[in-house]
Amino acid sequence: MRTLLLPFRAAYRGLVWLANSPRTLILSYLLLIVTCGLLYHQFEPDVSLGDSVWWAVVTASTVGYGDISPDSWQARIIAAVLISIMVLLVIPLITAHFASKLIVDTDAFRHDEQEELKQNLRRVRTLLEALAEREGVTVPDSAGPPGGASDR
User: Fold this and answer.
1) DSSP of 23-34, one letter per residue?
2) Mean per-residue pLDDT for 138-149?
3) Between the chain's N and C termini, which has fewer beta carbons within 10 Å?
4) What CATH number does domain 2-102 carry, 3.30.190.30, 2.40.240.10, 1.10.287.70, 3.40.30.10?
């Protein structure tokens, strides 16, 4: 069962990688446009290469002016794949990337700040345990001091 999920996990990791890198996302978008334009030109030889790339841009943006439309079934499959990839993957990834940049918790602690807080809490706990031991204070069901010593 786990081996069946490996391709899906790899695809998911790839999507996360794309979404977190604007340069990679833009590069993959441009690569998609050029590839689909070249394939369209291959299957629709009457259309120039420039018009094929224009067709890919218009189709990817889902505007679809209608000035160029596929006649062959191969070009129609390319159009369907291009539209699907744009609508289901690329546009949501771009939206998610910008949304994650807008939703930033400026109050969140950095790693070094978290480590400093943890160290301070350890010091406070040690001081409190020393004070409690000196004063003879015990708390039932207490975790007790570190090192396994039990409450008195």
Assistant:
1) HHHHHHHHHHHH
2) 57
3) N
4) 1.10.287.70
